[in-house]
Amino acid sequence: MNNNYINSDTLIQYMDNELSLEDKTNIENLLKHDTVMQQELENLTLAKSAIKTYGLKMHVSTIHEEMMNEMAVEKTSTSQQSIVRKIVRISMKVAAAIFIIMFGVGVYQYATITPDKVFASNYTPYTLSVNRGTAEKDMIEKSFKEKNYTGIITQFETLTDASTKGSFLAAIAYMETNNYKKAIAAFNYVLAKNTLEKTSIFNDDAQYFLAMSYLKNNEVKLAMPIFEMINNSTNHLYNDKVTSAFMRKLKIINWKY
Amino acid sequence: MFTNICYVMEIVRKYSDAELIEAIKSSHKTDLDKAIKYLYRAYFEVLKIYTCQNSGNEEDAQDVFQEVLVAFIDLAQKDKFRGESSIKTFLYTINRNIWLNELKKRGKAEKRNVIFENEKDSSLLDISHFIVQNETRKQILNIVDELGEICKKILLAVYYENLSMKEILVNVEYETEQALRNKKSKCLKQLEQLLTANPMMAKTLKAALQYE
Fold this sequence. Notes:
The complex is a heterodimer of chains A (257) and B (212). Chain A is mainly alpha-helical and 257 residues long. Chain A is 76% helix and 0% strand. Chain A contains 11 helices and no strands. Chain A has helices spanning 8-15, 21-33, 35-112, 115-122, 139-145, 149-158, 164-176, 180-197, 203-216, 220-232, 244-256. The longest helix of chain A has 78 residues, at 35-112. Helix content of chain B is 75%, strand content 0%. Chain B has helices spanning 2-9, 17-25, 29-53, 58-77, 87-105, 109-119, 128-145, 149-160, 165-169, 177-196, 199-211. In chain B, helix 3 packs across helix 4 and helix 4 (58-77) crosses helix 5. The radius of gyration of chain B is 20 Å and the shape is globular. The model of chain B is unreliable at 1-9 and 120-124 (pLDDT under 50). Chains A and B meet through helix 1 and helix 3 of A and helix 1, helix 3, helix 4, helix 7 and helix 8 of B.
């Protein structure tokens, strides 16, 4: 290799280590004395270095985009998980609060419920419908309309063969005068008479008020089957009064007493 | 959707400082890729806080972090990172100085001075020369950008990716290796001329190179 033929391309080959050992040695010898050549090699090395720096910058830049996307996904995912966790936590708190409230209500109900309270909440005094054109010969019925309950009882107790209607009104009169034992007996008489005579005079009324009398008389176990029957019979006259809530209260009383 | 899930589920290995330096210096591109990703996962959020708490925003934090990584990887690959401090401390220090320098350039000198006064005692490393190099690096990037796309592609393939002429030939429109080699020489000389067009700048660039 002749010095006259040393050009940039050869210097680049030298820089890139592409020359034979002989040519390489030749270049190195020339470089020792040729400052122009030294300068050019220095400049080429600078260019090579610049490319490496540029490449590294591009490399980092490419990964940067990828990593920013990944981190954004992670953040979203973490954020979504956080929201779900928050919702679950709030739901748990609400559920716990509801449970505590319901438990509290249950405990309160259990502690304060009595047959008297349940009776009072459900009891409506019986009213006799007006039968126009019917002669009011029946004194019991007349007294009932006048709310003369003691008068009804006096008349009823003097009768030897009371009618179903008279017996029923007398039973109501016993209830109104707080004589529940006698009311129970009279209602049972009405029901038995209906069964015997295959009639249903005041039958639904008698069933309901009999059960109410048992309740008031603290005989919940006897009242329960009658109330359950009324609750299950949608055609029963008193089905609307014997609601599921009322039945729950009865069950609590049944456990308690 | 599923691609994103795969990103999250990618197994991420943890590196010690020594292992990280080895991975950065590795001749395998995948090792460097993994190391850069690890640096992002381990340090980006931490360093972002510093930039954002000192008059910067998310975009600033991202730009600064990229510069930090380029500076750090460049040093590590040239065996200039001596492990006098942990990588974390080193990155933090570079990040802080690059950002303070950026604030200064933006005319927020007063603010920068306040921050610097508050923090100078906590600076454990003298990295002023890294800042000079960082500025030089930016100039270099701008100059390289003046090359045509083909030239950049060929020179990057040869000098950054270390590909052979045979491998590069597949991706460029040259029929023979010799033609490609000629183009490479031409491009490198073009870049050399661009870099040395301004004698003062050439001197700065060379000085930075010599330091490296």
